[in-house]
Amino acid sequence: MENWRQQPWVFLTFIAPAAFWLLLFFLIPLGWIWFFAIGEREGPVDIVVTWTMSNYAEALQPIYLQLFLKTLWIAVLSTAICLVVAFPVALAICFAPSRYKGLLLLLVILPFWTNMLIRTYAMIAMLRQNGFLNDGIGAIWTAVKFLLTPVGLDGLMGERFEPLALLYNNTAVVMGIVYIYLPFMVLPLYANLEKLDRSLVEASLDLGASQIRTFFEVIVKLAKPGIISGIILVFIPALGTFLISDLLGGPDSQLIGNVIERQFRAANNLPLGAALSFLLLYLTFIALALRAWYAAREEKADA
Fold it and tell me: Which of 149, 223, 248, 301 is the most buried (most CB within 10 A)?
């Protein structure tokens, strides 16, 4: 294969459209937001760049730091749940007969065919007081009460079923994030597990290792690149989400993304919103830097 240095104009021709797009629609707007963070409002719409750090100082007040920590906790919890749910799914697809793999992968990516807003509203239909989930739990409650009645234990079930409060709280936000971003965890895991050398699994079992030990010592370790990719793909958007918490969360379920959105719209305080946005961006960079440092450390240890 020829080195790109030997044909620089060919390389530039291919890379120029993408570079221009990134410059025009990502780097320049990001730069404007960065300048907003060190500016001050003058009038309803004007912002003057004064190189002030007061917006960052305000963004670091305890009320916002608590929201940052809460957002970080919900993003970590949602990512962990996605990993626990997605790993068996990816493993099942990987070991499924070849004729079913296409269908199973289609089911995984099927939610992408609908808008994220519609999917989030679908969660409301699932989780509301008279939603499908409470209806299902109510049906189970009725069946159990019916079975306990002949033995006189129906009193343990109470007089009537009380619907669970599944919507407009932190649990609903976590469930919404897991529901929306689960395919982003399944797909990289499947891509990694599909390349798994199955002879290593067979060798582990033949040498006397239990299935649980084989799973953790062989499969999980070999799937580490897919796990890391899935975590990044889920954790970063979960960290900045605001639509899910806005629709599924209650007054106590607001995340830092909701505060940023309000600063840019209702409060019209673009400097503070920009400072909060960049603090969130710095937090993401720190997470990615830690991941790169850990990967480099692993490669150095393996060498």
Answer: 248
